[in-house]
From TrEMBL:
Pfam families: MoCF_biosynth, PAPS_reduct. The lineage of its organism: Eukaryota, Viridiplantae, Streptophyta, Embryophyta, Tracheophyta. This is FAD synthase. InterPro entries: MoaB/Mog-like_dom_sf, MoaB/Mog_dom, PAPS_reduct_dom, Rossmann-like_a/b/a_fold. It comes from Vitis rotundifolia. One of its GO terms (molecular function) is ATP binding.
Length: 404
């Protein structure tokens, strides 16, 4: 299979890890559901293009394993039978429509074209077909990704089906690394500076890719894969876009004192929260909490409360929710890492009703510093003394409309 072969030949270890994880999710879904019970939601965008070709590779590997042919199957011997759903919209770019139909012809896709709104169209399709699971190109930085996992049941009020998200943990960089490494055709709009494509009414080329050319009155743009900061891929999803202005949540602080006016000072107060079952079980002594309290007091802060929470998303979210409306600054430690039991970031995001997204700019900066020591798997970094440490490349977006 040409996709699987291209990834094997790539020297991008991070891409290989992302690919293998996505293929695992796909093969798991194909083991749980029959081919007649799954479908692919395809809209012609970069993410769904990646998903289509991952599905082609995953289905090929699934069939090869079933046939016990030891790799003698060829691409032409394995037709792609997964039903493909396309929601055609009158406000879609003509280039998107053209690319979608060309792709369907090239790869022999069984297209169900729906001209209703997403929910109504989906209800009609699921009534007519035995579909139980739909592959989606949702990524963790997308507005719809809040609360989703690789396998997530549909939301209340929607027709019942399993949402399968093979590229949920992929970043903007990963998407383009895959498309370019595998030499996969994509919609021509991405070569014209579009980085995230919605409708013709709310999408323009990303201004961050504009090339200043004084000899021409027409603006020119670099291709989408040259966007250096993937967090800004949605910068072209509104006619008027300005970079977010960061305003401090509190007035300026000097030496632990908050300046209200030139004649009055008041002390900052803090709540300190630790996260860790090992602390509650008594198997580990909490040294960081007392140390943090001493440090805060030494610079003039007042600690109003400390607490240790279970490694549980809801527990963290409830406690943060309780304190976020107070004047306290909340410090949280513990439970931040690559393991499933590390839930602090997810808990804080849930408390604010926002999402986690990869901080690609910081990640690329660290990769520039540490180079080959970064394995690309679960944010692991192999240190000089031979042990494995972890770097965390996620940030919490508190204003989705401004940041993505």
């Amino acid at each position: 299979m040409e996709i699987d072969e291209a990834i094997r030949e790539s020297d991008d270890r991070r891409l290989k890890t992302k690919y293998n994880n996505a293929i695992y999710v796909i093969r798991r879904a194909l083991a749980l559901y029959s081919v007649e019970e799954v479908a692919l939601s395809f809209n012609g965008g970069k993410d769904s293009t990646v998903l289509l070709h991952l599905l082609r590779a995953g289905y090929f590997l699934h069939k090869r394993e079933q046939s016990h042919s030891n790799g003698v199957l060829t691409d032409h011997e394995v037709a792609f039978p997964i039903r493909t759903i396309y929601f055609e919209s009158p406000s879609a770019f003509p280039e998107i429509n053209s690319f979608t139909y060309e792709t369907a012809t090239t790869y022999g896709l069984q297209m169900d074209i729906i001209r209703l709104d997403f929910k109504s169209g989906l209800e009609a399709l699921l009534e007519a077909k035995p579909i139980r699971a739909i592959f989606l190109g949702v990524r963790i930085g997308d507005p719809t990704a809040v609360g989703q996992e690789q396998f997530s049941p549909s939301s209340p009020g929607w027709p019942p089906f399993m949402r399968v998200n093979p590229i949920l943990d992929w970043s903007y960089r990963d998407v383009w690394a895959f498309l370019l490494a595998c030499k996969i055709p994509y919609c021509s709009l991405y070569d014209q500076g579009y980085t995230s494509i919605g409708s013709v009414h709310d999408t323009v080329p990303n201004a961050l890719l504009c090339v200043n050319n004084s000899s021409s009155s027409k603006e020119k743009f670099r291709p989408a894969y040259l966007l250096s900061d993937g967090r800004l891929e949605r910068a072209g999803r509104a006619k008027k876009f300005s970079l977010p202005v960061c305003r401090p949540a509190y007035p300026a602080v000097s030496n632990g004192m908050i300046s209200v006016d030139s004649n009055k000072n008041s002390t900052l107060t803090a709540t300190v929260l630790g996260v860790g079952d090992e602390i509650l079980f008594g198997t580990v002594e909490d040294e960081l909490g007392p140390s943090l309290c001493r440090k805060l007091h030494s610079i003039g802060w007042s600690v109003s409360q400390t607490a240790v929470l279970r490694n549980d998303v809801d527990s963290v979210a409830e406690e943060v929710e309780r304190w976020k409306s107070t004047n306290d600054v909340v410090f949280i430690y513990g439970g931040v890492g690559p393991l499933h039991s590390d839930v602090t970031l997810a808990g804080v995001a849930k408390a604010f009703g926002v999402r986690l997204a990869p901080d690609e700019e910081f990640e690329e900066y660290l990769r520039h510093l540490i180079g080959d020591h970064c394995t690309g798997d679960r944010n692991e970094v192999i240190c000089s003394h031979g042990t494995t440490c972890y770097c965390y490349f996620y940030c919490i977006h508190f204003n989705a409309r401004d940041t993505l």
